[in-house]
Amino acid sequence: MKLSNWLIILCFFHTASVVAQEKTIPLWAEGSAPYLKDGDGGPTLNLYPAADGNGAAVVVCPGGGYGGLAKDHEGHQIARWYNDRGVSAYVLHYRLGSQGYHFPTQLADVQRAMRMVRGNAKEWKVDPERIGVMGFSAGGHLASMAATKFDEKAYDPVDEIDKLSARPDFAVLCYAVISMDSVSTHSGSRRNLLGPDKKDDPAAATHVSSDKNITANTPPTFLFHTDEDGAVPSENSILFYLGLRKHKIPAEMHIYQKGPHGVGLFEGDPILGTWSGHLEDWLRSNGFFAAKEFEQAAVSGTLNLDGKPVSWGTVTFYPQDRTLPVVTTRVRRGKFSAKKESGPVIAKSSVELTGSIWEETGNAADKVVEHTLAETVNVTDGAKFEWEYTK
Predict the structure, then answer these.
(1) Most buried of 8, 118, 309, 390 (most Cβ within 10 A)?
(2) Domain range spanning residue 333?
(3) Predicted model pTM
């Protein structure tokens, strides 16, 4: 490729980045931010409203070891990814240890960011009950504190916004620093967060170790890490996941074998780059994309293939409204059922059937699992379905 073509491509990406960033606002009115040092401007929030939003929103915390901000690949690019899925994003430029700011300043910044989005929900066309937090590396630690220490008073209230809840409705933690103990932590993050006076204080480290602060009120959480991460060991995500399970908090975790620390979306990698697809599925399946309230249905039925009951298979309901969750029920010996709390959404849906009848017939030709799109149905509570399909 000629150099001139590369220059055109680089100019295109630069222009797209500038156009995509809509607006930057201060978290507090000028001079009123808590812990503010003389001459500093204070923390800010970059607004990325979704053009055709579904009402969901997320505060994004870039990483950087509490010493810098990876505001492009862990900020801007993430915001645009959410925008493409109808979610408004708000990238937080929180204060850093390298600037002389230490705990609880960062917790104050993320709490204020959550309250700011919630307080402007009507104007920004956001559902105040579908506002999440997401963070990467040290930003993941900040997001984990937002998910576990939202009731801790990190600063004195200054206005009406500070009366609102700072609790996220969901959390997404990507190769996050979780523990601040000397074994599992990222030492730079610990030093920058706690400061020179407390960096070696075990009690201070325990206070901000998010795996020790999980409660029954911690929101549903998605975690992503790699086994090869040489900066933040995957034990951090594992500790948080185990804490979530202990408190029966809905959670999903993906740990990939390959991949360095700090990858962002990493869309160029056909394996590691799939993590964001899992996140999208998780957000949809938990109803965070849903622009309206929905109800699930108890369903049951039978499924036969070539006149034989399907020995092992599935029935999957795909709502025509793509913001609503996809639900799959298992078929065993030709029958399937789902309780109301785990059943398909009451909505018009396409149905996909899969199944095998080899256990029933013993014929070698029946070892293949057959797939078919059955029909479009109106799912109602208590509905009974009977499907017959052929190879």
Answers:
(1) 118
(2) 299-389
(3) 0.92
